[in-house]
Amino acid sequence: MTVASIKRGYQVIRTALHFGLDEMLPQHLTPRYVSLLRGSLFWLRNKHKDKAGGERLKLAMQELGPVYIKLGQMLSTRRDLLNDEWAEELAMLQDRVPPFDSALARQAIEAELKAPIDSLFEAFCDEPLASASISQVHTATLKSNGESVVLKVLRPQVEQKIAADLKLMTLAANLLERVLGEGNRLRPAEVIQDYRTTILGELNLKLEALNATKLRNNFLDSDALYVPYVYEELCFQRLMVMERVEGIPVSDIDALKAQGTDLKLLAERGVELFFTQVFRDNFFHADMHPGNIFISREHPHDPYYIGLDCGIMGTLSESDKRYLAENFLAFFNRDYQRIAQLYIESGWVSGNTDLLAFEQAVKLVCEPMFNKPLDEISFGHVLLELFRTARRFDIVVQPQLVLLEKTLLYIEGLGRQLYPQLDLWQTAKPFLERWMSEQVGPKAMFDKVKGQMPYWADKLPELPELVYDNLKLGKKLLGSQQQLLDKYLRYQRKSHKSNYLLITSAILLICGTILLSQGLILWPAYGSLAAGGLLWLLGWRARPRGGKF
Hints:
The chain is of the alpha+beta class and about 550 residues long. About 60% of the residues lie in helices and about 5% in strands. The protein contains 21 helices and 11 strands. The strands form 3 sheets. Strands 1, 2, 3, 4 and 6 form a 5-stranded antiparallel beta sheet that branches. The two termini are about 65 Å apart.
């Protein structure tokens, strides 16, 4: 352990104790050594006793910096783990980071390019366009084609800082896991592992470039989403170069209204984009907060989204996609029994769950929704409430479903912000019904058969030979079975004969012994003993050898 990691560890402990996070642990579960350790740090007092637990956790994460802020933002979507108060406090975390020195940015960019910036770019701007916890963005012009581009570069030493913080988080999570015991609802070690996967993915800008290219290709002919072109030959692990696109931030409603943007169409397209990414492409942007989304300035009557920052992308298994679609449709149709069955069939809750009790719990959540106007029903909150209800039945939430829930809440929030009267059901239900019919209808069956045709055509010439080989093998197996049966029958016959002789010899030997002991006529006694001994010898020799047939 380095001096820097020890200093960082002390800083984290000091911050946690200043905000009284240790006091949130259940006293009856806290080991004695934890209490002794806390007592030894007597100079670190809780300075925020007047604040609620959720607020103290939010402030502590804010003080610890970007890595912890991002963890808090992720936890804010885990309503299956946290109560409402804590989740809402963490949702207010803002990731605002001062920029780092442009000289360091130049140095990092040239190290990745292995060439001076001036050899490839003109008008490189030292003033960053944006600065975040992991990276910083600068603008420039490509010499090769004169196109305006942005260069996204990782912050200096960010990998080492994140690795050190992740190590500390893992130690703390493992300790908390032991304190809370097995079966605890928070599952801290699992949460940190999910977070590790997410944040380490953001550290590889080459991977982000590939994600952006794939998303762009999925929507090349779309009038709803534009993803800037990525110059893959200029992308590396710590540097990404992409087309610069001008747009209006999606959160700037006044600017959108001022240019006459069709906000109703824009809101509906946002919902359609979400479902298209999830159900058509199975590849969805999982970090669609307002800072990553812009709106085109061209054609305000026919607006489209501009998507940035593809560091976090989500995918679902085919079974999860189908179960989610059926879940939403069952909700539309008020089929609560089907919702409960789907949760159990998908493995999200235990198969030992009381179906009737779970159905009633789902009904209590969903039924009041239908007493509201459709434009007041939140799609994301329905899913969130179902997860929260299932928490009482030991729900197992997969990381990809958490990403989906977070993305749906972002999209729906943006849609309602753009157009408060957005009827999410009217937009979503036809899409889901059409998708389900394509998955299980005659067309889906035909498409699957069609997709397998090249494989079957390749194997068809081998079919006669395979049939002949199988018939030959079957005949051989039949012959082997007959031989085995004959051998077994012979074994049984030998076994019966041997048993008969041995039992008869035992009877004769017993009778001879009784006659001899009574002092009766001696020759029958000796005859019985002799016959018994002879039969025993014959029976012993007739037995099957080795006990095998």
